[in-house]
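Q: What does the assembled structure look like for these inputs?
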Amino acid sequence: SAVISQKPSRDICQRGTSLTIQCQVDSQVTMMFWYRQQPGQSLTLIATANQGSEATYESGFVIDKFPISRPNLTFSTLTVSNMSPEDSSIYLCSAARGGGSGYTFGSGTRLTVV
Amino acid sequence: GQQLNQSPQSMFIQEGEDVSMNCTSSSIFNTWLWYKQDPGEGPVLLIALYKAGELTSNGRLTAQFGITRKDSFLNISASIPSDVGIYFCAGQLDGNKLVFGAGTILRVKS
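A:
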């Protein structure tokens, strides 16, 4: 299965600023996703990162707040824009090769907004 | 939207005991996945199930894809301290998106 490197692993940010999280996969993958995991909660899908086109966002998430890039088949970024304390969470990148293969997750980025 | 009902929410067990947890849904899924998440880490895939009725083992772990495609269970036999963590079920929908259960927190008494 793919190996995912995600950075930064954690950050403390001032409200009103933006943070870009990077996700690097060690091999080409068909699909990449971004999830949010609030403290003590399960994972919620933010969006599907589409290679070479705009990401597909889930209900409750919008591009202006969470712009996503995916310039190639191994790399994606998620930006958390104009942050507020409510954005404090763990953000996780996931990748899959498709064809029924399981999904691999990065170690996550633990974001605290103060 | 689709929801997975995962139970139990948490459990304390004695080392050496067997553990069982399950997920149910009102929706049909193409694939069921079971993950374990340790503190400060991302979820790690334990078992993937692709066919209704499929029973799959991975060491001390056994999982089954329900015949109706709306449920799955995970069993852990002879639990050990390193089994501590949060276990998530996930169902795969069309379009390759995953929906996650709320998680089962496993605590082991040594």
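Residues 21 and 75 of chain B are 7 Å apart (CA to CA).
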